[in-house]
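Catalogue entry: protein
Contents: sequence, C-alpha coordinates
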Amino acid sequence: MADQDSKITLYGFNNLTKTLSFNFYDICYAKTAQQRKEYIEYIDETYSAKRLTDILAEVANIIGATILNVATQDYDPSGASVTMLISEENAYAEEPDDLNASIDAPSVVAHLDKSHLTAHTYPESHPDSGICTFRADLDISTCGKISPLKALNFLIDSFEEDIVILDYRIRGFTRDVNGQKFYKDHSISSIQEFMSEKTRQQYQMIDVNVYPENIFHTKMMLKQFELENYLFGDDNIMHQKEIEYIENQLRNEMTEIFYGMNLS
Protein backbone atom coordinates (compact mmCIF):
# COMPACT_ATOMS: atom_id res chain seq x y z
CA MET A 1 0.00 0.00 0.00
CA ALA A 2 1.20 3.49 -0.77
CA ASP A 3 2.14 5.84 2.06
CA GLN A 4 -0.99 7.82 2.92
CA ASP A 5 1.14 10.80 3.94
CA SER A 6 2.68 11.14 0.48
CA LYS A 7 1.00 13.01 -2.34
CA ILE A 8 -1.71 10.90 -3.98
CA THR A 9 -2.88 11.28 -7.55
CA LEU A 10 -6.60 10.71 -7.22
CA TYR A 11 -9.13 9.22 -9.57
CA GLY A 12 -11.77 11.92 -9.53
CA PHE A 13 -12.90 13.83 -6.44
CA ASN A 14 -11.48 13.44 -2.95
CA ASN A 15 -14.72 12.49 -1.18
CA LEU A 16 -13.41 11.88 2.33
CA THR A 17 -15.70 13.51 4.88
CA LYS A 18 -13.93 15.16 7.82
CA THR A 19 -15.97 16.38 10.77
CA LEU A 20 -14.72 18.40 13.73
CA SER A 21 -17.21 18.75 16.59
CA PHE A 22 -16.89 21.08 19.59
CA ASN A 23 -18.65 21.25 22.94
CA PHE A 24 -17.65 24.48 24.68
CA TYR A 25 -18.63 25.05 28.32
CA ASP A 26 -18.43 28.30 30.25
CA ILE A 27 -19.16 28.07 34.00
CA CYS A 28 -20.02 30.89 36.38
CA TYR A 29 -21.70 31.59 39.73
CA ALA A 30 -24.72 33.91 40.01
CA LYS A 31 -26.00 34.17 43.57
CA THR A 32 -29.59 35.31 43.09
CA ALA A 33 -32.36 34.27 40.73
CA GLN A 34 -32.24 37.75 39.18
CA GLN A 35 -28.50 37.48 38.57
CA ARG A 36 -28.98 34.08 36.95
CA LYS A 37 -31.63 35.56 34.68
CA GLU A 38 -29.26 38.39 33.78
CA TYR A 39 -26.47 35.92 33.05
CA ILE A 40 -28.61 34.05 30.52
CA GLU A 41 -29.59 37.38 28.94
CA TYR A 42 -25.89 38.30 28.74
CA ILE A 43 -25.05 35.00 27.03
CA ASP A 44 -27.93 35.39 24.57
CA GLU A 45 -26.67 38.85 23.65
CA THR A 46 -22.98 37.88 23.50
CA TYR A 47 -23.55 34.69 21.48
CA SER A 48 -26.56 35.70 19.41
CA ALA A 49 -27.29 34.17 16.02
CA LYS A 50 -25.55 37.17 14.44
CA ARG A 51 -22.38 36.63 16.48
CA LEU A 52 -22.41 32.90 15.69
CA THR A 53 -22.85 33.72 12.00
CA ASP A 54 -19.81 36.01 12.12
CA ILE A 55 -17.75 33.25 13.78
CA LEU A 56 -18.80 30.62 11.23
CA ALA A 57 -18.21 33.03 8.35
CA GLU A 58 -14.63 33.45 9.55
CA VAL A 59 -14.28 29.66 9.78
CA ALA A 60 -15.40 29.43 6.14
CA ASN A 61 -12.80 32.05 5.26
CA ILE A 62 -10.04 30.22 7.15
CA ILE A 63 -10.69 26.89 5.41
CA GLY A 64 -11.16 28.56 2.02
CA ALA A 65 -14.87 27.84 1.57
CA THR A 66 -17.64 29.70 -0.24
CA ILE A 67 -20.85 30.26 1.74
CA LEU A 68 -23.88 29.04 -0.19
CA ASN A 69 -26.68 29.51 2.31
CA VAL A 70 -27.18 30.65 5.91
CA ALA A 71 -30.11 29.90 8.23
CA THR A 72 -30.24 31.59 11.64
CA GLN A 73 -32.53 31.52 14.64
CA ASP A 74 -32.60 33.21 18.07
CA TYR A 75 -34.84 31.25 20.43
CA ASP A 76 -37.28 32.27 23.14
CA PRO A 77 -36.51 32.11 26.03
CA SER A 78 -32.83 31.51 25.23
CA GLY A 79 -30.31 30.02 22.83
CA ALA A 80 -29.44 30.46 19.17
CA SER A 81 -28.68 28.35 16.11
CA VAL A 82 -26.90 28.87 12.80
CA THR A 83 -26.56 26.46 9.87
CA MET A 84 -24.26 27.38 7.00
CA LEU A 85 -23.92 25.38 3.76
CA ILE A 86 -20.54 25.77 2.12
CA SER A 87 -18.77 24.79 -1.08
CA GLU A 88 -15.36 25.50 -2.54
CA GLU A 89 -13.54 25.00 -5.83
CA ASN A 90 -10.01 26.01 -6.76
CA ALA A 91 -9.71 28.75 -4.19
CA TYR A 92 -5.95 28.88 -4.70
CA ALA A 93 -3.82 28.35 -7.72
CA GLU A 94 -1.21 26.01 -6.29
CA GLU A 95 -1.71 22.58 -4.78
CA PRO A 96 0.29 21.80 -1.63
CA ASP A 97 3.25 19.45 -1.97
CA ASP A 98 1.83 16.97 0.53
CA LEU A 99 -1.53 16.19 1.99
CA ASN A 100 -0.65 17.29 5.51
CA ALA A 101 0.15 20.73 4.13
CA SER A 102 -3.52 21.08 3.26
CA ILE A 103 -4.18 21.71 6.96
CA ASP A 104 -1.56 24.35 7.65
CA ALA A 105 -0.37 25.93 4.41
CA PRO A 106 -2.01 29.07 3.01
CA SER A 107 -1.96 27.66 -0.54
CA VAL A 108 -4.74 25.11 -0.75
CA VAL A 109 -6.74 23.52 -3.54
CA ALA A 110 -10.04 22.13 -2.37
CA HIS A 111 -13.55 21.24 -3.41
CA LEU A 112 -15.88 21.36 -0.43
CA ASP A 113 -19.23 20.08 -1.61
CA LYS A 114 -22.06 18.74 0.54
CA SER A 115 -20.33 20.50 3.45
CA HIS A 116 -21.72 22.50 6.33
CA LEU A 117 -21.02 24.48 9.49
CA THR A 118 -23.43 24.56 12.42
CA ALA A 119 -23.58 26.24 15.82
CA HIS A 120 -26.09 25.90 18.66
CA THR A 121 -26.07 27.49 22.13
CA TYR A 122 -27.58 26.25 25.40
CA PRO A 123 -27.43 28.65 28.38
CA GLU A 124 -28.86 27.26 31.62
CA SER A 125 -28.66 27.58 35.40
CA HIS A 126 -29.06 25.42 38.50
CA PRO A 127 -32.21 26.41 40.44
CA ASP A 128 -30.55 26.23 43.88
CA SER A 129 -26.75 26.22 43.82
CA GLY A 130 -26.14 29.43 41.82
CA ILE A 131 -24.16 27.59 39.15
CA CYS A 132 -24.76 28.73 35.57
CA THR A 133 -23.46 26.81 32.58
CA PHE A 134 -23.30 27.94 28.98
CA ARG A 135 -22.76 25.27 26.31
CA ALA A 136 -22.05 25.91 22.64
CA ASP A 137 -22.01 23.04 20.13
CA LEU A 138 -20.26 23.54 16.80
CA ASP A 139 -19.76 21.18 13.88
CA ILE A 140 -17.53 21.70 10.86
CA SER A 141 -18.05 19.04 8.21
CA THR A 142 -16.10 19.14 4.93
CA CYS A 143 -15.59 16.97 1.87
CA GLY A 144 -12.29 17.22 0.03
CA LYS A 145 -8.69 17.84 0.94
CA ILE A 146 -9.23 20.65 3.41
CA SER A 147 -9.48 19.55 7.01
CA PRO A 148 -11.60 21.54 9.48
CA LEU A 149 -8.63 21.23 11.86
CA LYS A 150 -7.35 24.36 10.10
CA ALA A 151 -9.94 26.38 12.07
CA LEU A 152 -9.30 24.63 15.39
CA ASN A 153 -7.33 27.35 17.16
CA PHE A 154 -9.54 30.18 15.89
CA LEU A 155 -12.63 28.51 17.37
CA ILE A 156 -10.96 27.78 20.71
CA ASP A 157 -10.00 31.46 20.90
CA SER A 158 -13.53 32.62 19.95
CA PHE A 159 -15.25 31.40 23.12
CA GLU A 160 -14.57 31.95 26.84
CA GLU A 161 -14.49 28.26 27.65
CA ASP A 162 -13.58 26.37 30.81
CA ILE A 163 -14.21 22.95 29.29
CA VAL A 164 -13.75 21.89 25.66
CA ILE A 165 -14.75 18.47 24.36
CA LEU A 166 -13.56 17.75 20.83
CA ASP A 167 -14.27 15.01 18.32
CA TYR A 168 -12.64 14.62 14.92
CA ARG A 169 -13.65 11.86 12.53
CA ILE A 170 -12.71 10.96 8.96
CA ARG A 171 -15.35 8.95 7.10
CA GLY A 172 -15.61 7.28 3.72
CA PHE A 173 -12.74 6.69 1.32
CA THR A 174 -11.19 8.09 -1.82
CA ARG A 175 -9.30 6.32 -4.63
CA ASP A 176 -6.06 6.86 -6.48
CA VAL A 177 -5.78 6.41 -10.25
CA ASN A 178 -5.14 2.69 -9.79
CA GLY A 179 -8.37 2.22 -7.82
CA GLN A 180 -6.61 1.86 -4.43
CA LYS A 181 -8.83 3.06 -1.59
CA PHE A 182 -7.54 5.57 0.97
CA TYR A 183 -9.38 6.08 4.24
CA LYS A 184 -7.26 9.03 5.40
CA ASP A 185 -5.32 11.65 3.47
CA HIS A 186 -3.24 13.20 6.26
CA SER A 187 -1.44 11.90 9.33
CA ILE A 188 -2.92 12.42 12.79
CA SER A 189 -2.46 10.67 16.13
CA SER A 190 -4.20 13.29 18.32
CA ILE A 191 -6.19 16.50 17.92
CA GLN A 192 -3.66 18.04 20.29
CA GLU A 193 -1.08 18.02 17.48
CA PHE A 194 -2.98 20.85 15.78
CA MET A 195 -3.41 23.08 18.85
CA SER A 196 -1.34 26.15 19.55
CA GLU A 197 1.30 26.01 22.26
CA LYS A 198 -0.69 28.60 24.21
CA THR A 199 -3.74 26.31 24.31
CA ARG A 200 -1.71 23.26 25.31
CA GLN A 201 -0.26 25.21 28.23
CA GLN A 202 -3.63 26.52 29.41
CA TYR A 203 -5.57 23.26 29.54
CA GLN A 204 -5.37 19.86 31.19
CA MET A 205 -6.13 17.31 28.43
CA ILE A 206 -6.94 13.66 27.97
CA ASP A 207 -7.37 11.70 24.73
CA VAL A 208 -9.55 8.75 23.82
CA ASN A 209 -8.68 7.78 20.24
CA VAL A 210 -9.80 4.85 18.06
CA TYR A 211 -7.12 4.77 15.40
CA PRO A 212 -8.48 1.94 13.16
CA GLU A 213 -11.77 3.87 12.87
CA ASN A 214 -10.15 7.30 12.37
CA ILE A 215 -11.95 8.65 15.45
CA PHE A 216 -10.12 11.15 17.67
CA HIS A 217 -11.46 12.52 20.95
CA THR A 218 -9.89 15.12 23.25
CA LYS A 219 -11.19 16.61 26.52
CA MET A 220 -9.80 19.89 27.85
CA MET A 221 -10.22 21.63 31.23
CA LEU A 222 -8.75 25.02 32.10
CA LYS A 223 -5.87 24.68 34.58
CA GLN A 224 -5.99 28.08 36.29
CA PHE A 225 -8.91 28.92 38.56
CA GLU A 226 -9.41 32.49 39.85
CA LEU A 227 -12.74 33.02 41.60
CA GLU A 228 -13.15 36.64 40.52
CA ASN A 229 -13.42 35.46 36.92
CA TYR A 230 -16.40 33.24 37.76
CA LEU A 231 -18.66 35.61 39.67
CA PHE A 232 -21.52 37.21 37.76
CA GLY A 233 -23.10 40.37 39.12
CA ASP A 234 -21.97 39.95 42.74
CA ASP A 235 -19.71 42.72 44.03
CA ASN A 236 -20.38 42.11 47.72
CA ILE A 237 -17.52 41.14 50.00
CA MET A 238 -17.92 37.48 50.97
CA HIS A 239 -16.77 35.67 54.07
CA GLN A 240 -14.33 32.79 53.81
CA LYS A 241 -16.90 30.01 54.15
CA GLU A 242 -18.96 31.44 51.31
CA ILE A 243 -15.86 31.72 49.13
CA GLU A 244 -14.98 28.08 49.82
CA TYR A 245 -18.55 27.00 49.09
CA ILE A 246 -18.64 28.80 45.73
CA GLU A 247 -15.20 27.53 44.70
CA ASN A 248 -16.25 23.98 45.58
CA GLN A 249 -19.46 24.30 43.55
CA LEU A 250 -17.58 25.61 40.53
CA ARG A 251 -14.85 22.98 40.70
CA ASN A 252 -17.41 20.21 41.05
CA GLU A 253 -19.33 21.47 38.02
CA MET A 254 -16.18 21.57 35.87
CA THR A 255 -14.97 18.18 37.04
CA GLU A 256 -18.34 16.53 36.43
CA ILE A 257 -18.51 17.92 32.89
CA PHE A 258 -14.89 17.02 32.17
CA TYR A 259 -15.27 13.38 33.29
CA GLY A 260 -18.91 13.02 32.25
CA MET A 261 -20.16 11.81 35.62
CA ASN A 262 -21.84 13.24 38.73
CA LEU A 263 -19.77 13.45 41.89
CA SER A 264 -22.74 13.44 44.26
Notes: Strands lie at 17-29, 66-74, 80-87, 115-125, 131-143, 163-171, 174-175, 181-182, 203-207, 215-222. Residues 8 and 56 are 30 Å apart (CA to CA). The domain at 17-259 is CATH 3.60.90.10 (S-adenosylmethionine decarboxylase). The mean pLDDT is 85.
